[in-house]
Amino acid sequence: MAHDGTHFVAQLREACATCGVRGLCLPSGLNRHELRALGEVLRDRRPLPAGATLFHAGSRFESLHLVRAGCLVSVMPSADGESQVLGFHLPGDIVGLDGLGTHVHGCSAVALERSRVCEIPLHSIHELACRVPSMRETFDRIIGQRIQTEHEHIAMMGKRLAKQRLAVFLLDFSERARRLHRDPQLFRLSMSRSDIASYLGLALETVSRLFSRFQELGLIEVERRLVRLIDVAGLRAIAEGEAVPELRPGMQAEKH
Amino acid sequence: MAHDGTHFVAQLREACATCGVRGLCLPSGLNRHELRALGEVLRDRRPLPAGATLFHAGSRFESLHLVRAGCLVSVMPSADGESQVLGFHLPGDIVGLDGLGTHVHGCSAVALERSRVCEIPLHSIHELACRVPSMRETFDRIIGQRIQTEHEHIAMMGKRLAKQRLAVFLLDFSERARRLHRDPQLFRLSMSRSDIASYLGLALETVSRLFSRFQELGLIEVERRLVRLIDVAGLRAIAEGEAVPELRPGMQAEKH
DNA sequence: CGGCGCTTTGAACTAGTTCAAAGCAAGTGG
DNA sequence: CCACTTGCTTTGAACTAGTTCAAAGCGCCG
Fold this sequence. Notes:
The structure is a homodimer.
Chain A: H1 6-19, H2 32-39, E1 43-44, E2 53-55, E3 63-69, E4 72-76, E5 84-89, E6 94-95, H3 99-102, E7 108-111, E8 116-121, H4 122-131, H5 133-157, H6 162-179, E9 186-188, H7 193-200, H8 204-216, E10 220-223, E11 226-229, H9 232-239
Antiparallel strand pairs in A: 1-8, 2-7, 3-6, 3-8, 4-5, 4-7, 9-11, 10-11
Chain A binds a DNA duplex through helix 8.
C-alpha cells in the first residue's frame, strides 16, 4: 500500500477524529509514531453500497475490518434456512474476529446502508502488537469487550420478556450513538424489523407491536425506522424488568 | 514460581498428555524449547473443590485460566437476581477471556465438581506470544474459537424449539467428550437441570420433561445426571429441526 | 432415620407465535 | 402524473410451546 510519510499520518488522524470513537477504536491513545506504524497497516477500502457483502460465511479469513462509517450486520446462516443476526456494527467496531481461529469466516457481514471499512491484514496485526505496546493493549481491549458483548447478548436472549429485550436494544443503541457523539435520543435504525427480531430472538410481528406499545406508553416516538427516545428512565425500568404500569394494546398513555 | 529446567518440561508434557486436548489446549504443537518457555509461564494452582469459585464477577482480572481437570461453569449475574449461565468449561478450555478488555471479570467461574486449573498470568502471555510464533497462533485459535462458540450459543437461543436446544446441547457434550478421548455416548453431566435450563434459555421443568421425552423415544437413557446417547442420528435430526415422528407425553417409543 | 436439595410430573395459564390481511412508502414505466 | 408493483410494516385473531405453580418422588449425607 502506498503511504507517503507524515501526510498519511495526518490523514489517518483526521479520519479517526471524524470517526470519533474513544477507547474502542484502534488508534485511540496512540502517539505520532505509533499512528504512523498503524497507518502502514491499515488498507483503505472502497465504500460498500447498501446491501453489499463484506465477506461471506465460509469464505477464507484474511483480515479484520474496522467499520469507519455506516452500519453492518453479521449474520450466521443455519441449516434450516433461518439465519441468525449476531450483531450490528457501527463505526469503531471490529468485524471478522470469529475467523481468527479457523481462518474461515463463521458468519457473513453485510452493509445495511452505504458504509466504509478499513481493512487490517491479519499478518500485520501481531507484528504491530509486538512492536507497539499500546497497540497490544488496544487489541486486548477489543477482544475482551467483544466477548463481553456476546455475553450480554446471550444474557438478553435467555429468560427475558420481549419488552425487556426491545428496551435493552434501544438503550444500547442510544448509548452507542452517544459514544459516537451523535444524538442519543434521536436516531435512524438502518436495519429492518425482521433483523431486529432475529437479533432479539423474537418474531418480527412482536417487535413491530412493541414499538407501537412503547409509543402508546409515551416511552418513544417511532415512525418506521426513525426513533426518538422520550422516557429513557422508563425504558430503563422496563429493561431491568421492573413491573411497568400497563402495556396492553388499546390503552392510551394518558389517563385522565 | 519454581521451575527446575528439563524436569519441569517433562512434567508439563506429561500433564498435557493426560489432559489430552488436541488443537485447543495451549501446548499442542509446541516443540521442546517452546514448551519450556510455556512452563515458565504457567502457574499451577491448588485443586478447586466442587462449588468453589475461581473468580467472581466484578473482581480484578489478572490471569487467564486453563482448565486441567473437572468442569467449571461461567455465570453472569443480572440485576433482577436471575443469573445467566454462559458456558460449561471442560479440560482444555480457557476461562476468563472476558476480562481482557476492562481488566475486571464480567462473569464468575465456579467449579461444578472437583477441578484443577492452570493459571496463566496476563503479563506473560503477550511476551510469550511475541517470542514464540506458534504460541501466537494458538492464542488466536483460542480467541477465534471462543467467539465462534458464543455465536453458536446465540444461534441456539434465538428461534429454536426446546427439543432442538437440548439435542444440540447433548450432541455438543458428546463431541467434546470425544475430543477428550472419553466415551462420546456415555457421560455424567456435572451440572444441575437448572444450570442446563439457564444455559439453554428454558425453564428447568422443560429440560427435565425433555430428558424424559427423549428417553421415551429411545433417543437416550438417562438416570439423573448420567446420560447415555442411544440414537445419535435421531438426536441430530431433532437438532437440525427435522420433523420428528412424535414427542408427546404418554406415548411409548415402541409402536406395535 | 430424617431432612435437604435436586428432579420429576401434572395441570392451568400466558407470552409470544403464526397466519392472514391491510396499510404505506418508494420506485417504475406508460 | 397516475396505475401498478414491490418490500416493509402494522394490526388483528387464533393458537401453542413453554412457563408457572404445586406437589410428590428420590437419592444422599449427617
